[in-house]
Amino acid sequence: xxxxxxxxxxxxxxxxxxxxxxxxxxxxxxxxxxxxxxxxxxxxxxxxxxxxxxxxxxxxxxxxxxxxxxxxxxxxxxxxxxxxxxxxxxxxxxxxxxxxxxxxxxxxxxxxxxxxxxxxxxxxxxxxxxxxxxxxxxxxxxxxxxxxxxxxxxxxxxxxxxxxxxxxxxxxxxxxxxxxxxxxxxxxxxxxxxxxxxxxxxxxxxxxxxxxxxxxxxxxxxxxxxxxxxxxxxxxxxxxxxxxxxxxxxxxxxxxxxxxxxx
Length: 263
Hints:
The protein is α+β, with helices and mostly antiparallel strands. It is 48% helix and 20% strand.
């Protein structure tokens, strides 16, 4: 039986229909979606805040190009998702970072005040431990004196810390410690301000100033103490802890005014 022309499949017509239905996906929409998915990184690291901003730009450009294409481009939903993620993170990241910085200052303040309290109570052996790396810090309990007795090097370090050695130029810590020990509970310590805060290599550092007021001859006198504190991760547990890396007496605050973060 001979095959007629009408019996043959019209392959070219099917192919034309598929070509007619094909619409390319907007590359901008795909890029905007990918950047939107990466936008949460801005919450972790402030230096990556440009990511959600870039996502907003790409999403807006993608939607504009798709609208002008006359429905020849696909990707509107992807562009919308990327745009919503980027806008949300662009708004949330600054608030999250400001809250994080505020919480860091609060934590540093509590740690510094614990140091002042220990010296006011006449316990330099415990206050000294707050200046040590958290990885090697000893428990602040009754066994601490035994630790110093069994470790002559640490005992000497404590001895020097409280100023029982010839003072070296620029070494203000022993003089400050001796002064606070001498004042004892008569000293009133008040948080004054946070003069610096930063982050390097995943380590947060805070520099705060405290006012120490005491009575002399029936008159109140005040001097300022500058403290640098570092927040580090304890290796065995992975938890964060603070360390006092520097404490200087007689500093002059950059500005006198109402207390920050009071409460």
